[in-house]
Amino acid sequence: AQPRRRIILYEYEGCPFCRKVREAIAVLGIDVEMRPIPRETLTSYGYCASSRYRPEVRERMGTIIAPVLIKEDGTAIKESDDIVAYLWDTYGW
């Protein structure tokens, strides 16, 4: 099943917990808007403290954490195991 409304995943490429969530999304074949939140350690590579989506995560969660899934109803889930369980329970076969 596909989400009726947009769901969003805040994540960064090198995070093993984010990878677990991305793999579940790929297996389920669901449409999710991916919003990258680069780590602060990327400063030497041109990272900017006001990168595009980091302020959204900080405002919503009170800190920078990844992964964070914003569900169809607008509520957030922040633990990778909880996100994967939610995705399978909601959109699984």
Question: How would you describe what is shown here?
Answer:
- This protein has helices at 16-28, 54-61, 80-91; strands at residues 8-11, 33-36, 68-70, 76-77.
- It has 93 residues and is an alpha+beta fold.
- It has a four-stranded mixed beta sheet with strand order 2-1-3-4.
- Helix 1 runs parallel beside helix 3.
Total count of strands? 4
Termini separation:
8 Å
The overall average pLDDT, rounded, is: 89
The helix/strand series, from N terminus to C terminus, equals EHEHEEH
Strand content: 5-15%
How are the strands of the largest sheet arranged? 2-1-3-4
The stretches of 5 or more residues where confidence is low (pLDDT under 50) are: none
**Main pleated sheet:** 4 strands, mixed
Radius of gyration: 13 Å
Q: DSSP helix count?
A: 3
Summarize the structure in short:
By secondary structure, the protein is of the alpha+beta class. The chain is 35% helix and 14% strand. The protein has helices spanning 16-28, 54-61, 80-91; strands at residues 8-11, 33-36, 68-70, 76-77.
Considering the chains and any ligands shown, give keywords for the structure:
4-stranded mixed beta sheet, alpha+beta, single chain, 93 residues, 3 helices
Topology:
Layout (H helix, E strand, L loop, with lengths): L7 E4 L4 H13 L4 E4 L17 H8 L6 E3 L5 E2 L2 H12 L2
Parallel strand pairs: 1-2
Antiparallel strand pairs: 1-3, 3-4
